[in-house]
Write a structure and sequence with these properties.
Dna Ligase, domain 1; about 30% strand; 4-stranded parallel beta sheet; binds adenosine monophosphate; alpha+beta
């Protein structure tokens, strides 16, 4: 156990998107500074961080100089090149650690890890070519979803297979990348748990949120989720088991399918998560502060939920709604400072608080 970082310490963040931006704001509130590393000089976190290094992850001199200015390194995305991590780990603690990244970067490794923990996942099989796919379909059945093992996000790198005729086109859509076939899960709801584990091993989870997706992209999360007490407890306990098995330090998002037969783990994200943005208005300590506390070696905060919240993502042209939302009562806007509006691009979100604390 190392000493907690003192106010004035510097946290390095790999990745300068909206998650890095909101982490930087949370760190600043605790009197800490953030140094963001991102190849894009205009990355949203750069507007609010104390320092920015804009260089590619292959620039080892830039990485070394970055590591020399920070007390701990964290990240806002899971696909950090291995070479960069090798170098950084030798210089400064990286939290969450390598194991969590290794598990979550590859859907096959992730599923195997979850299965080994005894947690339910969709049936799955590795697919590298047409023969593997035919065998996987025979074993798992249809409908199923073919997904690239790596670099998939927001529903990208996925193809649904409803009939055997669709198999060849789905394989083509993988562009030769190693893939995994997943049986289609008949779920009643999608939920996620945002969990945290501190440096001393303490675990705390936020209340599960209920997620709605469109075109593979998260549109909204609402709390409380419509769950029984047993389902809620199960969701939180399985998240704790994942965090402990990984010796994790920081905040993690665990996406789950709710089915008649119990909870099925879809995927884990070793970082703060879009489906946890509601915590900014629903809890005294939000997911961003919780993550900063954990990686800084502070005690975890009380993430108990004090309000019902609906978080809506503002995607692409949803930005046109901003003037109207700005006039709404009990609506907290979070805009990411991205200059260009593009279809499918996450531009911001709004947290609408119902009843309770914020109503006069
Ligand atoms: P993912 O990128 O794996 O989170 O998938 C994006 C979305 O696709 C999920 O949130 C689900 O709505 C849907 N999905 C992914 N995998 C499955 C599955 N095995 N069965 C049913 N729906 C799925």
């Amino acid at each position: 156990m190392t000493d907690p970082l003192a106010p004035g310490a510097t946290i390095g963040i790999l990745g300068g998107g909206q998650l890095g931006r909101m982490l930087s704001v949370a760190a600043a509130r605790l009197g800490m500074r953030c140094h963001v590393f991102d190849p894009d000089g205009a990355a949203p976190a750069g507007h609010v961080a104390a320092a920015v290094t804009s260089a590619p992850y292959e620039d080892h001199d830039a990485l070394r100089a970055f590591a020399a200015t920070v007390d701990v390194i964290t990240y806002e995305f899971e696909n950090i090149p291995a070479g960069a991590l090798d170098l950084l780990e030798g210089a400064t603690p990286v939290r969450p650690g390598r194991k969590a990244l290794k598990v979550s970067q590859d859907r096959l490794t992730e599923k195997a890890f979850l299965a080994e923990l005894g947690l339910a996942t969709a049936p799955f099989a590795a697919v590298d070519d047409a023969q593997d796919l035919a065998e996987a379909i025979a074993e798992i059945g249809l409908p199923a979803i073919l997904k690239t093992r790596r670099f998939g996000y927001d529903g990208k790198g996925q193809a649904r297979i409803d009939s055997p005729d669709a198999a060849a086109a789905a394989l083509d859509a993988m562009n030769g990348a190693p893939a995994i076939l997943e049986g289609f899960v008949d779920f009643s709801q999608e939920i996620s748990v945002i969990g945290a584990r501190g440096l001393s091993g303490e675990v705390a989870c936020f209340d599960p949120g209920q997620n709605r997706h469109r075109d593979g992209i998260l549109r909204s999360t609402s709390v409380p989720a419509q769950l029984s007490a047993a389902q809620r407890a199960d969701a939180v306990l399985l998240t704790g088991r994942i965090l402990n098995r990984l010796g994790y330090v920081g905040v993690m998002g665990v996406e789950l399918f709710v089915t008649a037969g119990g909870l099925i783990v879809n995927e884990i994200a070793p970082r703060v998560h879009n489906s946890g943005h509601w915590t900014q208005q629903g809890c005294s300590i939000d997911q961003f502060e919780q993550h900063i506390r954990a990686v800084a070696g502070w005690p975890l905060g009380d993430g108990g939920r004090h309000s019902d919240v609906e978080m809506e993502n503002l995607i692409g042209e949803d930005m046109d709604k901003v003037p109207g939302i700005a006039r709404e009562a009990h609506a907290s806007l979070h805009l990411y400072g991205k200059a260009d509006v593009k279809p499918g691009r996450k531009m911001g979100h709004v947290n609408r608080v119902a009843g309770g604390a914020r109503q006069a």
